[in-house]
Automatic annotation (TrEMBL):
Keywords: Ribonucleoprotein
Source organism per UniProt: Bacillus glycinifermentans
GO cellular component terms given for this protein: ribonucleoprotein complex
Superkingdom as given in the UniProt entry: Bacteria
UniProt protein name: Small nuclear ribonucleoprotein
Length: 100
């Protein structure tokens, strides 16, 4: 049975299905996403929907404090994670981050 032209089906494409399976395999792992625009995104894979992946992406934050007299104390820095959603249509590949 063929689908009429212009009618969208609820079944994801093979590319989406393979990325969904990879996401399920590497759930809660540190992964690298390769995007179609050439960027690489590192993060912790939180969830995988039928058409997108939710990733915690780290961002570096610096905390600048005013010190009396400018005594040269170092600036505090830490990381926090920002939840981002990446559609499978914008991704080319996904793989676990290699730890050595």
């Amino acid at each position: 049975m063929s689908v009429p032209k212009g009618v969208q089906t609820s079944m994801p494409h093979d590319h989406d299905r393979s990325l969904h399976n990879l996401c399920r395999k590497y759930m809660h792992y540190h992964v690298v996403l390769k995007l179609k625009d050439g960027r690489s995104v590192h993060g912790i894979l939180e969830n995988a929907g039928q058409r997108e992946a939710t990733v915690y992406v780290p961002e570096r934050v610096t905390e600048e404090k005013q010190f009396y007299g400018g005594n040269g104390l170092p600036i505090r820095s830490y990381r926090r994670f920002k939840r981002m959603v990446f559609p499978f249509s914008q991704m080319t590949s996904l793989y676990p981050f290699p730890y050595y």
